[in-house]
Design a protein that fits this description.
With 156 residues, the protein is of the alpha/beta class. 26% of the residues lie in helices and 15% in strands. It is built from 5 helices and 4 strands, in the order E-H-E-H-H-E-H-E-H. Helix 3 (75-82) runs parallel beside helix 4 (114-128). The longest helix has 15 residues, at 114-128.
Amino acid sequence: MRGHYAVTTDPARSVIAGRSLSGAAAFAAFRLPELFGNVLSQSGGFAARRTPRAPAGRRRPISRSSRRGFPEGEWLTRQLAIAPRKPIRFYLEVGTLEEVAWELAPPRYADTTVLLANRHLRDVLEARGYPLTYHEYHGPHDPTRGAALSATPSRR
C-alpha cells in the first residue's frame, strides 16, 4: 500500500477505526502497535462473544462454551489490563441507551451490555495510564450518532 499511497510509517500518526464490532479495530492496534497508534471506537462491541456458526437460515445457538466465556466476552479488556502497556491512544464513544446485550437467548440478565463493556474498558484504560478520550452521547446503538461523526463536516 505504501508503494501506491503516501501513508505514514509513524504509528503515532496512524488511526484504525471501527463502529459496533469495532473491538476488531482495537484488537488490531493491540496486536500491531507498530502499525496503529490510535484507535477510534464508536459503540464498540467489547462484550461480544464468538458463537458457533449455524447452518444457513438458522439462528446461531448459544453454546455451552460461549456461556462459560470461551472465547471470553471482554477478552480484549482483560488483555489490556494485564499486558505491558503499549503506545496506543484511544478514543471511545458510546450511547447511554446502548443497553444491548450481545447474546439474545435467555437468560439475558447476566450479559454485559455495549454501554457497560465500554465503561469497563474506559476504567481499565484509565487505570493503566493509556491516553484516552471517552464520550457518552444520549442515544441508542445508531450509526448516525456520536461526537466523532457529528464533528465531521457534512458533504452535500
